[in-house]
Amino acid sequence: MDEERMNPFGPAPEFTLPSAAGGAVSLPDLAGSYVVLHFFPRTGTPAWAEDVRAFQALLPEFTSLEARVVGIAPDSLSTLARFAANGGLTLLSDPDCAVARAYRAVTPEGRVQRATFLVDRAGSMRWAWWRGKVAGHAEEVLATLRALQAADEAVNPLIHSRRAYRALSGEPVAREALQRLVEAAHLAPSCFNNQPWRFVIAQGETLDRVKGALSGGNYWAKRAPAILALASHRDLDCKLSDGRDYFLFGCGMATGLLMIQATQMGLVAHPIAGYDPHAVKEALGIPEEYVLITLIVIGKRGEASTLSDKHRAIELGPRERKPLSAVVAWNKFGDLYQTEGI
Amino acid sequence: MDEERMNPFGPAPEFTLPSAAGGAVSLPDLAGSYVVLHFFPRTGTPAWAEDVRAFQALLPEFTSLEARVVGIAPDSLSTLARFAANGGLTLLSDPDCAVARAYRAVTPEGRVQRATFLVDRAGSMRWAWWRGKVAGHAEEVLATLRALQAADEAVNPLIHSRRAYRALSGEPVAREALQRLVEAAHLAPSCFNNQPWRFVIAQGETLDRVKGALSGGNYWAKRAPAILALASHRDLDCKLSDGRDYFLFGCGMATGLLMIQATQMGLVAHPIAGYDPHAVKEALGIPEEYVLITLIVIGKRGEASTLSDKHRAIELGPRERKPLSAVVAWNKFGDLYQTEGI
């Protein structure tokens, strides 16, 4: 991959272009579908025409995988319309190559260079092909899409691999990375968009004071280069009938997103409850009337040898969960697990 | 991509192999680092040797990106050790090709076929190369890793693209997909691993009864093919000092993961609070003493034209959030946003 190439893991640049079938097509309107974006120099060249026709021939299979195949060329709308007449392929006209340029699918001389991008249902690029053989290209894109769809139907790999690890290396974590974690958390939804979460990031001497307030069982968190305190107040969010106070639920959603972001960044983000809340509030200046619902211990993974025997066994052992049937039912609560005495 | 190839978006199969540097290397032990897995037939062939030496030459750059480069070949440990002596590259011996076979990096005749896999910090494959030119290969892997790392430092694309969309198509969602959403939610952590979340998935006639209990503002949710009720009870989770009841916080973390899973699957998962909790509890048989904290409306995205003017404007408008400085502070709570009167 040359330096000049598009980052094939990044967001797909948005665009709106006129379609040979009439009207315009915007990338954001296709969200929820997979999108194959195929940039090609011109329908008039036999090799490129063959390439586009190969996508046309496979269109029913792409459609059955909930994918839209979109060809983009600098040709005029009328040229593209003649070409697409029987095929049903979406062809968009990009006469000044502005979109091709946004995808870096142009030569230094400004001519379109053949490239294909596979965009997922969330609008993110997942695979790219630059130049390469025309023969078999559409088939390879289809096979890659099939693999992607199969992977996307499985449990998200970040959700799957996240664990409440305790062994930390003690390495520092950049301020920017800590801020990115909160940015991700802040994208959570909340009741009436109240955004009830308040984070205080403890580092340096303040962090030492927070560590002094940890319970004995959280000795491992003393190796953390940062701890995020998450506090809120009941009045910061909806208070609805039948016990539905939303502030802690909202903080939970934000923490869920934060943990996923941390896992992507190769960080542990372990929410704990074992600390003296008054001492931590005092150290961080959090108003006493707030609920300090969790401290989120941040760090890079380290050696399990730093842990107690009990914690080492948990760290290296399998994940423990109740069977799914204890927490989910269809249409009737029925036999869902209840603690004794409720 | 042939049908016989490894799914390059799936989890990287685990393995443990002896290293030419002594000891053994397990893939799970490398979690938290990027891993380049390079399968090659033999160090003795000039072309493959050149390939491996190219990785060796770039080792400092891979290391600076927090990546481990691991070469795997059927050669004996002593052959690999002689080859690796000056380079510092991790070379693993896979004499019966069992690991190569797990990665489908073998010919039908059982010989190793050159292939390289880029594994992310969570253990998921993100890119793969099969055969292809030796010249420039290591450089291309490095450039791809650099692009991946840059993307992983940004906000996760599923977190970024998730929105509380209201426009639903009305298309059905498979039972298996609904179950997958709850599976993802059930991987959330919780206080003392109490797993306080209880989901009831409403479909069919029961769904109609739930829809009858929605507030007027949630008219749009009547197009949903399924609604997940999430209920819990204070006694299902830790109740700690200073107002720290964890059950709703835990339900929030689970909902955070569920929304990410839904976004990956091209689904809307929109938690709402506007419903008559008693009527929904009755429809679903949820014990009256439980808190029915949210209904999560599930569906595929549809046309914004089905929405009220107000909701259409929200659906198509920018996302609204307080500035980050209103919800996060360094070391001191200080000026964080508080609602009036607290």
UniProtKB/TrEMBL annotation, chains A, B:
GO function terms (MF aspect): antioxidant activity; oxidoreductase activity
A Pfam family hit? AhpC-TSA
Protein name in UniProt:
Alkyl hydroperoxide reductase/ Thiol specific antioxidant/ Mal allergen
**Which InterPro entries does the UniProt entry name for this protein?**
AhpC/TSA, Nitroreductase, Nitroreductase-like, Nitroreductase/BluB, Thioredoxin-like_sf, Thioredoxin_domain
- Report the residue ranges that make up the Thioredoxin domain in this protein: 6-150
